[in-house]
Amino acid sequence: MSVATQHTLLPEVQSFLDQSPLASFVGGKAFPSEQGNVLATIDPGSGDQLAEIHDLNSAEIDRAVEIANEAFPAWAGLSQEERSSILLKLADAVESHKTIIAQIEALDAGKIEAQAAGDVQNFVDTMRYFVGLSDQVEKRTKLDVPGHDAYTVKQPWGACAFIFPWNFPFLLIGWGISPALAAGNTVVIKPAEDTSLSAIYLAQLAKEVGVPDGVINVVTGRGATAGAALTNNTQIKRMSFTGSPEVGRLVGESCGRNLVPVKLELGGKGAAVVFDDVDVKATAQALVGAITFHTGQVCCDATRWLIHENIYDEFVSECKQLMEKVRIGHPLDPNSDMGPVVNPKQRERVLGYQEKGTAGGAQCLCGGGPATVDGLNGNYVKPTLLAGPLDNVAAREEIFGPVAYLAKFSNEADAIAKANDTDYGLANSVWTTDAERANRVAEAMIAGNSWINAHNVFAHGVPYGGVKKSGMGGGVLSPETLMDYYRSTSVVRPL
């Protein structure tokens, strides 16, 4: 690996990268491509190659699913106490390796290292949360049916498949597999081809702490081949996909043909509705922080800012000042506020939407264009504020970068109508000191999540999911999520 990042790596991280090419991990051991096919994984902050990963074909994906299903009976057959003990050991191990995993994640995904550390802790907290819930699940429920002895029993499904995106690789693995494993299922994880390193590290760590072979499997490769093979496999028992609506449709079609239950967590074009009674400086700081967090590569982010006309000019002025102070740099640089986007393709996407937006009549209020960091050939862009009519392409389509689109509103009804005028329905927020109005507007917005005086709020126990183009099949982070990973059987004896 090149040292162009100019930052010293932890010896454990360097040792992990020195395993390159890094194989998938299936059935408790390295699972390389038989043909030796590999993909390069790149540090988006420097442009340097970090390592190579194996690129599996469809037959190899099918074998991984077989292994997960073979491991299922023994894992499901453990007592809840035994299974919970193993998973808590894994959570403890992840926590004790947090600095290592965070540095791997920062290098691979372009995520500020402190933010990556937060993601790792979130994984730990999520695993512990669902283990605690699973310990309380009543597997048998007596039914009061005249003339019958009847009850239902909950059982795990089997091998569950997960396809994760590149923006929150490790955190989303925690959100996805924790309830599945706690319920007694085995898992096959397909990370994004750009950001597979932390998943491989997790699988190796799981082996070290005693997770039975075949319970946690990681398969790497291209989405169009390895990912497609996983969604088309008829032996998976449940599928979960997190990513774009375009790919989500393809996943849903495959699962529909195979009659496999599917959960789709897709994109967003969230609105932040800001009324004229707010603290302008504090609200501007919160929203600028949200749009620059992980370089705006957050599906539930507030990317449409609807500002009351009475404070619009003051709000814009404050946001511009804050945007201009954002320090752009390598994710391992502790002085960096915002890192790169994940790859050159995503950089061109963000810049292309800025160009299409201004060509379509939007005004660039601040930022725009590529950013440079001395000595680094990374995928950097400037945080950007656009403003104009809401029929603009930059206001309608998901950009997935640090770009916010501003528009005015005149009253509550106008704000709600503009917030709901979108194909997406993941997450919105309302900002006001009027509690009654906050609740009214939050409930009127058509989305899976409505936050009040905050954005990007994720609390264990609160369902998180989307509607419209933003998803289907249920959410994550709540008791209902755990129950998704049990199937129900009715047992009846006539009396």
Automatic annotation (TrEMBL):
The Aldehyde dehydrogenase domain, residue ranges: 34-490
InterPro entries: Ald_DH/histidinol_DH (IPR016161), Ald_DH_C (IPR016163), Ald_DH_N (IPR016162), Aldehyde_DH_dom (IPR015590)
Transmembrane regions: none
Alphabetized UniProt keyword annotations: Oxidoreductase
Keyword Iron among record annotations: no
Any GO MF annotation of the entry: oxidoreductase activity, acting on the aldehyde or oxo group of donors, NAD or NADP as acceptor
Family: Belongs to the aldehyde dehydrogenase family.
Protein name in the entry: Aldehyde dehydrogenase
Source organism of the structure: Rhodopirellula bahusiensis
